[in-house]
């Protein structure tokens, strides 16, 4: 089978499909890395964007009131989270949002906690601003990962100023429980730590339910900001639309001033039309997507358990990213990456990138047609069997 026969993303300037040569020195790897999906956005999103295109004028644009309403409706329906439209600040991405939040609410040298292994841009986000990076590694247990609250408390006690939560957590796939988030909120109140909650994966839940951090923090005096976006949910990341929700208007003003200082904030009419349509008309599409992704996860898990028992799959409670442990094969660091590339022909995200605790791990993206997973599994199994023979 040629590449073209089974995929339409090659030669579309897709990061996942067209950067293999640049990133892995091999354009023929099977790409299951970058966190986007190999699916078209919902039809209402495409239609709303077409309408904007047909108008054909892309001059400076004011963010429509209807967009704020669409976000408000989504948060209410999906999470029973009632927000006023004036609590949202639109931004061109969650990573840029966190960058601005760090600039606004911390000073040079301040400690910022992240919970490793974690989405790798969190490291430079803290370090690029000359803040002190504090790692609060998650504890690996038989059933999944947990927060090390004892260490977290001592790090907060020692004066950390901010924690960047990843909720749900990329790459370990945890959907934090209300009790876990409440404990973070309690500690944040005691030690006066600002909580940035990155909830970009909140819509992609397979087990349990997503609890917005602000719900768990009710009753606690915590400075907090929540970062959200339709980008992962509806596969529109390149449109660069996200938003930050504040509970405290004076903190919100400070953040807005920071954005103004950096001249961030012009609306993109294609992005706002897409977001509005996704939130107003994309709910059934999302339900169908979740059911499909659950099937992908079940397939992967069953295949690995049956045919590759030395590899451990951490079944994600949320996010379409699967954290896989290859230590049972005695593979770590560069050796694991070389094996995945050269023996399996797979492009996965190197576990190392998510922090030292990711050594011996890799992250597989399962947001693709089942046939893509089947091919990924075949490639992995072939390499696995070859290794056993050697
Ligand atoms: C936890 C987390 N935050 C942020 C992002 C990226 O957000 P954006 O593209 O809006 O900057 C990702 C993408 O994978 C992510 O997993």
Automatic annotation (TrEMBL):
Source taxon at top rank: Bacteria
UniProt keyword list: Lyase, Pyridoxal phosphate
Annotated Pfam families: Aminotran_1_2 (PF00155)
Cofactor(s) it depends on: pyridoxal 5'-phosphate
Keyword RNA-binding appears in the UniProt entry: no
Enzyme class: lyase
Cross-referenced CDD domains: AAT_like
GO MF annotation terms: cysteine-S-conjugate beta-lyase activity; pyridoxal phosphate binding
Aminotransferase class I/classII large domain residues: 42-378
Enzyme Commission numbers on file: 4.4.1.13
Family, similarity comment: Belongs to the class-II pyridoxal-phosphate-dependent aminotransferase family. MalY/PatB cystathionine beta-lyase subfamily.
Name of protein: cysteine-S-conjugate beta-lyase
């Amino acid at each position: 089978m040629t590449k073209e026969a089974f995929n339409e993303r090659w030669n579309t300037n897709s990061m996942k499909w067209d950067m293999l040569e640049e990133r892995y020195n091999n354009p023929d790897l099977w790409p299951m890395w970058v966190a986007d999906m190999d699916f078209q956005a919902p039809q209402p999103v495409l239609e709303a964007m077409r309408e904007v295109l047909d108008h054909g004028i892309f001059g400076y644009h004011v963010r429509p009131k209807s967009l704020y309403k669409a976000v408000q409706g989504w948060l209410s329906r999906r999470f029973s989270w009632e927000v006023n439209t004036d609590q949202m600040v639109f931004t061109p991405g969650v990573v840029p949002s966190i960058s601005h939040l760090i600039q606004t609410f911390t000073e040079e040298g301040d400690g910022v906690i992240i919970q490793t292994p974690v989405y790798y841009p969190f490291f430079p986000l803290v370090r690029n601003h000359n803040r002190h990076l504090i790692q609060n590694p998650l504890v690996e247990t038989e059933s999944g990962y947990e927060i090390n609250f004892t260490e977290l408390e001592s790090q907060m006690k020692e004066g950390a100023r901010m924690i960047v939560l990843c909720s749900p957590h990329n790459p370990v796939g945890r959907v934090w429980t209300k009790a876990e988030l409440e404990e973070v909120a309690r500690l944040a109140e005691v030690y006066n730590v600002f909580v940035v909650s990155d909830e970009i994966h909140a819509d992609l839940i397979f087990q349990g339910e997503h609890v917005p951090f602000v719900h768990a923090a009710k009753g606690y005096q915590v400075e907090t900001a929540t970062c959200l976006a339709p980008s992962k949910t509806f596969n529109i990341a390149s449109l660069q639309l996200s938003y930050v929700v504040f509970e405290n208007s004076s903190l919100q003003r400070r953040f807005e001033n920071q954005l103004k200082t950096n001249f961030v904030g012009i609306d993109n009419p294609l992005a706002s039309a897409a977001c509005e349509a996704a939130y107003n008309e994309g709910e059934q599409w999302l339900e169908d997507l979740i059911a499909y992704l659950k099937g992908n996860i079940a397939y992967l898990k069953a295949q690995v358990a049956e045919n590759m028992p030395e590899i451990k799959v951490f079944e994600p409670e949320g996010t379409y990213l699967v954290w896989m442990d290859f230590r049972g094969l005695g593979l770590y660091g560069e050796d694991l990456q070389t094996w995945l590339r050269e023996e399996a022909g797979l492009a996965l995200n190197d576990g190392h990138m998510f922090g030292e605790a990711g050594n011996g791990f890799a992250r597989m993206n399962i947001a693709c047609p089942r046939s893509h997973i089947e091919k990924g599994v075949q490639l992995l199994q072939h390499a696995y069997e070859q290794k056993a023979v050697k």
